[in-house]
Amino acid sequence: MAQTKFDKQLEKEADSLVRGIGRVLAGRDLDGVKRADATFWHAGTRVLPKVEGKVRRRSYKPGWRRLSFRIALGAGVAESGYLATQDRLRRLGTTA
């Protein structure tokens, strides 16, 4: 059975999502381009050859620091959303 255009697009998007989640959990740059010689445990010290453009400071940080920052940021956003809904529900309960 041949894949439809929608099926191919859905498969491509699912692959991109899985790769993105893998990059987040590995502490890599999210665009997939490695710019510095940093690893998960060691900070980078130099720019890799054939890298064009500006290399940001976060590319030199070890992967565990990038991962911890991303988890903390995500948890903060989730907590803010949770607290915003709880406050709204509490206010609606007291005014009724």
Description:
- The chain is flat.
- With 96 residues, it is mostly helical.
- The protein is 57% helix and 0% strand.
- It contains 2 helices and no strands.
- The longest helix is centred in the C-terminal third of the chain and has 33 residues, at 63-95.
Distance between the termini: 58 Å
What's the helix count? 2
Question: What is the share of helical residues?
Answer: 55-70%
Structural class: mainly alpha
| Mean pLDDT across residues | 87
Succession of helices and strands:
HH
Give a quick account of the main beta sheet: strands, pairing sense, barrel closure: none
Shape, please?
A: flat
Number of strands: 0
Strand content: under 5%
Uncertain regions: pLDDT < 50 for 5+ in a row? none
Rg, Å, rounded: 20 Å
Write the layout of secondary structure elements.
Elements: H1 5-26, H2 63-95
Quick summary:
With 96 residues, the chain is mainly alpha-helical. Helix content is 57%, strand content 0%. The chain is built from 2 helices and no strands.
Give the key terms:
single chain; 96 residues; mainly alpha; 2 helices; 0% strand; flat
